[in-house]
Amino acid sequence: xxxxxxxxxxxxxxxxxxxxxxxxxxxxxxxxxxxxxxxxxxxxxxxxxxxxxxxxxxxxxxxxxxxxxxxxxxxx
Length: 76
What we know:
5 strands; 43% strand; alpha+beta; single chain; 1 helix
């Protein structure tokens, strides 16, 4: 069952993205501070990001800077 809910826990700076309301069978760290939650079939059912404010800020800045660099090269 699809749920797609986002919860932010400010006291521990953790973001949780629920993709499906299913029991978690295992979790896999996919990068520092990011854990994928999987069901018994190995399908992604959720993501947890710790130190979320820093992680999201840095990820967004990196993405925007790369996009701006790409755009500036097209103009030049």
